User: Fold ABC transporter inner membrane protein from Kutzneria albida DSM 43870.
Amino acid sequence: MSARALGLLGLALLPLVFLGLFFAWPVASILGLGLRDGGVLDVLTSADTWRLVGFTVGQAAAATAVAVLAGMPLAYVLARCALPGMGLLRVLIVVPFVLPTVVVGLAFRALLPDGGVLSIVLANAFFNVAVVARTVGGLWAHTDRRAEEAARALGASRWRAFTSVVLPAIAPAIGSAAAVVFLFCATSFGVVLMLGGARFRTLETEIYLRTVELFDLPGAAALSVLQVAAVLAVLVIGAVARRRRETALALRRSVETARRPVGGEWAVVAAACLVLVGLMVPVIGLVARSLSGGVDGYLALAGQGDSNTLQVPALETVQNSLRAATDATLLAMALGVTSAVVLSQVRRGRRVLGEALDVALMVPLGVSAVTVGFGYLITLGDLPVLVPLAQALVITPLIVRTVLPVLRAIDERLRQAAGTLGANPLRVWREVDLALAGRSLVAAAGFGYVVALGEFGATSFLARPDAPTLPVAIGRLISRPGVLNNQMAYAACVLLMLVTVAAVVVIERLRTTAVGEF
Assistant:
């Protein structure tokens, strides 16, 4: 085995060891505990179980389609258009993705009182438009506009040039974004719980019901096994599709793709504006709801709610959120960037090993937060570090999906040329990979950070009562009776949005500065 192969294997061990200790072990422990009690076959052969599977897959596929269609115009504007207020646009796109699911569920129930499948699909798509816009836009920004212009000069229509030149180039990013969105929608918890009620349930909400309310651990374990198997199947299909479509794009630092829109491009800008307005409607509704009783909810954030619902003042939970998100992002960047480097350097002869690592990194997105949370408590106990670890599991795949398409698109000849001129591997990484992927690295860190700020699923099971994060505090306030608790919950949601906006603004400034240095 060559020194290069040994080096890649050593790098791959870092994320694999992390996944083994902080994902595979806890999940296997909780599944083993449930499977030992028997009754699994009855659950798997039940018609009700397969109805749950059908609804889970159906609503996730519909929400993914809506998110991709809505996110593409935003991705184009982010990647190709030089317009005033682009920094604000990036902030507004991210805000919906980091809102607590329970609060978004309430917002959509207010907009669509009848609830049902439509509200579930729209709410899940609302969350995930940012995934499509940021992931696809990140790669689209690196594609050379001159190839598209050459196709137009040869007589191709704008649509023909897009489908024959641009779409094949960005297809890997679209596939990656769609896979992540599908997993998020298939494992959506708070949205389905709030909008589906007793009529519509997914595997995720059924696992929660059986674990927490019915104490049916064997049934929950059986459904978890089924969920993991379905997730693995989706990931393998996605990996095969990416392998068939992915090509090198020969990225260059000198290519500037953003410019003022011309001609038909304004129609895409108008579509992006309509999507943005649609994203802001629930957000504006939340702000209005938080002020329906004046500013009492905001003033009460200095306290602990009716009958001391929270063990600490609500404002203290902001510090907990910032601290946990910082730790989770640092850990996830180390794991995600290392994994992306390994996957981008895997040669054709070892693509199966690379795809296995890619699938392993994505699996945590598709495993029930209930399963992960209880697995942590069984294997690791009540440790303060559990929250950052769980958040890192969630955001590491997002970092990989953001950085990997760009690293794979770098022309290998640039690395070879740098090596021929005497650069060692570290300098090649700094002068070539980092220079071309620097924007994506900063974007990935920022995206991961704001996602960690709003993470609710796993955190709700692991955060200690005396150290809740802000989303967990919101969930507790909403679940308890009392007008003041309700007012505080909506005020805290607005506070979370403000903290998120501030974080994204700072990251956007850093990203712009970093890009200017390359």
